Amino acid sequence: MSGPVRVGLVSTSWWAELMHVPALQSHPEAQLVAVCGRNAERIADAGLEALVVAAPEEAHHDVCMAGIEAGLHVLCEKPLAMTETQAKSMAAAAGAAGIVHMTYFTWRWMPWFRYLKELVENGYVGKVYESSFRSTGGYGRNGAYHWKWDQRHGLGAVGDLGSHMIDLAHWLIGDVTNVSASLEALVKRPPPDESFEPANDSALLNLQFEDGSHGVVHVSALTHLGSRAMEWEVRLYGESGSLGVTMNLADGWKIWGLRSEENEIQYLDVPASMMEGVQVGSPVAAQFGQIFTKQAVGCRLFIDCIRAGHQVMPSFADGYKAQRVIETAFASESQGRRLSIREVCGGD
After folding, report:
1. Which CATH number goes with the domain that contains 51?
2. Enclosing H/E stretch for 177
């Protein structure tokens, strides 16, 4: 392949402008040559080699499949699809096509979570007994209609925020086997038409992992946090110790650890190698921008892997794995009981 990788972006959202456009423009071997809304046919004649899909969730399957069929490398925002069946077909098609495919799970690439992963792999907590994953904000409090809160177009908070937390749980601990979920649409929103189906704006998932440990995923778009705006927290408790990451948009991030022989938590510094290009003293929002325009993560990693000719992580397979948990959560809410993922989605 000669010349820069020609990329098309399917999205005109604020998130695409904030995240994907600067990241692609920062890569010396990427060229953003076309941008459109959810109708990918409008960039069919742009001579593309890769596609970044950040359209609303209902469009992910059809747009990604069109890209795969055209032989393009495809990056898709989370959640990968609206249903487990769609996500399975996308992962299978991408694998069969031999393209580079990525599910955009932002939090895997944050230095503090990468360091947490390293600590876990090095045995800091030993066998994990219990865990919690929380992501909250207040952007759904105003009661206005948005496609995120309409089941016809999106999966609500469990798709928007929960998919990230489920992926972190898979990445840090392992496969989820059973789910018990409560998914609530608490804010009343003006229906745009008679077929409006409110999507959850608050969700609580109790998980059991393949290793027997259990965990909780809590996500909400209804949490008033003032200047903190958004909060994220991961806690792991195990046989050898405990670890946690806390972060919000006002105070930044902290990593803490506590070994079994200790009584006081220790705050841990992320290795300098993981903070390359990041001004640690700058506001956390600025650090996000620095991470995704300076480091080999996100869109930049996608381009690197296209250039190198090898598959990227997280892939569509990771997106499909998270989708199975989401699908089981919806089934659990509907049936009012704990369900196994195999019972709902089959063995895969």
Report:
1. 3.40.50.720
2. strand 176-184
Residue 25 is given by DSSP the state H
Q: Which domain holds residue 217?
A: 108-292
* 288 and 156 share one domain: yes
Residue 281 dihedral angles phi and psi, to the nearest 5°? -80, -5
| In-domain check, residue 335 | no
Residues 6+ apart with CB under 8 A from 117: 171, 172
* pLDDT single digits (tens) 136-177: 999 999 999 999 999 999 999 999 999 999 999 999 999 999
Residue 332 lies in a domain: no
Kindly state the DSSP code that residue 105 receives in the 8-state scheme.
Answer: -
- pLDDT tens, 97-148? 999 999 999 999 999 999 999 999 999 999 999 999 999 999 999 999 999 9
Query: 219 - beta bridge partners?
Result: 135, 203
CA separation for the pair 271, 139 (Å, rounded): 33
Q: How many Å apart are CA 225 and CA 132, to the nearest integer?
A: 20
Number of domains the chain contains:
2
Residue 100, amino acid? V
Cα–Cα distance between 23 and 109 in angstroms, integer? 13
Listed residue (4, 13, 9, 29) closest to 300, CA to CA: 29
Q: Tell me, yes or no, whether 84 and 216 share the same domain.
A: no
Any domain includes 123 = yes
Whether residues 176 and 276 share a domain: the answer is yes
